[in-house]
Amino acid sequence: MFDQIMAASIGKRIVMFLDYDGTLSPIVEDPDRAFMSGEMRTAVRDVARYFPTAIVTGRCRDKVYSFVKLSGLYYAGSHGMDIKGPSKSSKYKNGNRGVLFQPASEFLPMIDEVYKALVEKTKSIGGAKVENNKFCVSVHFRCVDEKSWAALAEQVRSVLNQYPMLKITQGRKVLEIRPTIEWDKGRALEFLLEALGYANSNDVLPIYIGDDRTDEDAFKVLRDRGQGFGILVSKVPKETSASYSLQEPSEARFIILACNFYY
């Protein structure tokens, strides 16, 4: 169905939004080793030459940049709560550092405190890994025995009970602790379109590729706008607001490459 996407793009400016884990890189047991392939990096680098391209991830922005290692992209870390990149719009520029938007800055001390508490609280559960993503905390349980999942979730809740300004959401074998502000990947997508000067444009075609529940917020924004396409990466059929689906990151790479060749 790729031809349908290309037909819809005629006369329009494509803007590419890409999740990281499970989209640009495979899902792996150790989140610190979720490396993208050289071929994928080349595809992303090349597409960014033609279209504004953003990495939108739950990861810490600095962490995902260390994986991607490409300048000239927009990076939206912590589910869009930490956005940076070059921009045509002076409205959001911060000196020479490009776009810099952090709507949850006041939560930083609290997030750090919760991270330390969760590391201590979960250290008795084998395989659990707590990751500080700056504006959110991820508790990975991919390597935890399934019999211990409930106990781990209870440990996490026991810590979060003391922090009513934070909430828990669940992704693929991960619990995400985030500020309760009204901000998500969908809001980040809208912010970036505005920063690019496309907020009210009919001549833009946003394409968002992602694999997780948190990407559904972005898929829903595109569907509500009636503009662009969400593409879900999933091996199993699931309810989604995305327009299309792929099965694995290698197919996401094909879409990125196809956009390059088309133009």
From the structure above, extract its key features.
12 strands, 8 helices, 8-stranded mixed β-sheet, 263 residues, single chain, globular, 4-stranded antiparallel β-sheet, alpha/beta
Average pLDDT confidence is 91
What's the helix-strand series? HEHEHEEEHEEHEEHEHEEH
Q: Count of DSSP E strands?
A: 12
Approximate strand percentage: 15-25%
How far do the termini sit from each other? Answer: 17 Å
Overall, the morphology is globular
Which structural class do the helices and strands define? alpha/beta
Number of helices: 8
Oligomer state equals: single chain
Low-confidence parts, pLDDT < 50 over ≥5 residues?
none
Task: Describe the model.
With 263 residues, the protein is an alpha/beta fold. It has helices at 2-8, 38-50, 61-68, 108-122, 149-160, 185-195, 216-225, 249-262; strands at 13-18, 53-56, 74-77, 82-85, 99-101, 129-132, 137-140, 166-171, 174-179, 204-210, 229-233, 244-246. The longest helix has 15 residues, at 108-122.
Give a short overview:
The protein has 263 residues and is α/β, with parallel strands linked by helices. The protein is built from eight helices and twelve strands.
